Amino acid sequence: MKRSASQKYDRAAAHYDRMESCIETLFFRRFRRLAVACARGDTLEAGVGTGKNIPYYPSDLKVTAIDFSPGMMRKAAQKKERLGAGNIRLLEMDVERLAFPDNTFDTSISTFVFCTVPNPLLGLAELHRVLKPGGKAMFLEHMKSSNSLINLFLYVMNLFTQRLLGTSMIRETRKSIAAAGFEILQVHNLVLDVVRLIVAEKTRKG
Predict the structure, then answer these.
(1) Residue 66: phi, psi to the nearest 5?
(2) Strand pairing class (63-67; 131-142)
(3) Which residues, in sequence order, are bridge partners of residue 111?
(4) Beta 183-191 vs 88-92: how paired, if at all?
(5) How far apart are CA 198 and CA 137, in angstroms?
(6) How many angstroms separate the CA atoms of 26 and 22, rounded?
(7) CATH number of the structural domain spanning residue 92
(8) Cα separation of 173 and 179, whole Å?
(9) pLDDT for 6-20, tens place per residue?
(10) Contacts of 90 (CB under 8 A, 6+ apart)
(11) CA gap 100, 5 in Å, rounded
């Protein structure tokens, strides 16, 4: 299943930015800035994709960015090179199996990632593990709504997105973040309650 998801993104990599250019310009670019602005200290970006967040990281922020798709990583590397973002280290890695010690990072950022991770609870638990106690996690995600009419539309979309990229439109990501051990500090509804920016913390007891 995981290999299949990676291969879907490999195939989509060449056209991915063009496919999302309209919604990126209208909405997501602004939302990414909000998420990245919260980063402090050693930062892990889980699911860097084609590197859409790279332009927004300040040059003095140390960032390690991972993804499980080699095709997407090549696009991110090109973007990094073009922007001269020497503070960003790119590593091919699966968020469900992070090759970092416990308590490594001050901040984690993921943007539109946990709709696609095959086992989101496992990936979230890994992020929790590698964050330092008191570390912050920013999740910019789309997820199931509390409105049944909106969810009807999302269920229809899900029939296509699951087949195309393995992306779920109906995950209950806020609940999963809490289940992985994070304390949720803030929830910002950005597009109704479907696209949300969730700020969470690894509690000092965790």
Answers:
(1) -120, 160
(2) unpaired
(3) 140
(4) unpaired
(5) 8
(6) 6
(7) 3.40.50.150
(8) 10
(9) 777 777 777 877 878
(10) 48, 65, 66, 67, 73, 76, 77, 80
(11) 23
Residue 155 lies in a domain: yes
Element (H, E) at 34: helix 29-36
156 assigned to some structural domain: yes
**How many whole angstroms separate alpha carbon 8 and alpha carbon 148?**
30
**Alpha carbon distance 83, 58 (integer Å):** 12
For the chain, list residues with pLDDT below 50: 206
Cβ neighbours of residue 31 closer than 8 Å, sequence gap 6 or more: 111, 140, 190, 195, 197
Residue 12: per-residue pLDDT: 77
Burial, 1: exposed, middle or buried (Cβ in 10 Å; 0-12, 13-18, 19+)?
exposed
Q: Are 200 and 176 a contacting pair, CB within 8 Å?
A: no
Total domains present in the chain: 1
Position 206 in a domain:
no
CA proximity to 175, closest of 138, 134, 143: 143
Interior/surface letters 55-92, b for 16+ CB within 10 angstroms, e for the rest = eebeeebebbbbbbbebbbbbbbebbeeeebeebebee
What is the domain extent for residue 13?
A: 2-201
Is the C-alpha dihedral spanning 107, 45, 151, 189 positive or negative? Answer: positive
pLDDT at 128: 98
- Please state the length of the chain: 206
Residue 168 lies inside a defined structural domain of this protein: yes
